[in-house]
Amino acid sequence: MLEKKKTTKKLLIAVLGLWFAILFGAIIIVVLVLNGYISLGAPELPGAPPLAKLENGSLANDFALENLNAEQVRLSDLRGKVVVVNFWATWCIPCVEEMPSFQEFQNQYPDIVMLGIDQKEGLEQVRTFLEGKGIDYQILLDYNAKVAGSYKVFMLPTTIFIDQEGMIRFRHYGIMTPDQMAYYLRTLGVIQ
């Protein structure tokens, strides 16, 4: 009986050790992907940012979301312009870190439309958070993350680039640098 308990305990320790190793390995892979050491980019994207994913050019799902002035903004109304859709939240540090560069691109290239889609937070919470940050590109509220779900957003930040015809061209996972943003906009012909 005592021998059986020892064997059971050893087996339990071995199984727990295996699960811990799998979990630890998965965390390492996620960290490597988010820091650009493992690329999600397609091989046909030479020079692309490490977290780039070329999309197949499918039509972007239309949506209508409320902005911070309680006005509805509909994606299909923006056809004819390049639209950069950034999914973010106030608690997401990388999301907040990339916002000033998005604002700079919006200021420098008024022909693009920046849409920041906040996830599952309230109007007053987002409005208060943005006070004094100098962000004036469109911030939209996805209260129930329905739009994020329709775009298969599984992590924040995720940024999607939509061309003038309303087709999805690129998806970027994680924080985006100004050089990476410039790459996407240059590829879409918005900047030189």
Q: How is the secondary structure organized here?
A:
Layout lengths: L1 H33 L17 E3 L9 E4 L4 E3 L7 E7 L4 H16 L3 E8 L3 H8 L7 E5 L3 H5 L7 E5 L5 E6 L4 H10 L5
Parallel strand pairs: 4-5, 5-6
Antiparallel strand pairs: 1-8, 2-3, 2-6, 4-7, 7-8
Describe the structure.
- The chain contains 5 helices and 8 strands; from the N terminus they run αββββαβαβαββα.
- With 192 residues, it is of the alpha+beta class.
- The protein folds into 2 domains: 1-38; 52-187, 3-Layer(aba) Sandwich (Glutaredoxin), CATH 3.40.30.10.
- It has an 8-stranded mixed sheet with strand order 1-8-7-4-5-6-2-3.
- Strand 5 (112-119), helix 3 and strand 6 form a beta-alpha-beta unit.
- The longest helix has 33 residues, at 2-34.
- It is elongated, with a radius of gyration of 21 Å.
- 30% of the residues are buried.
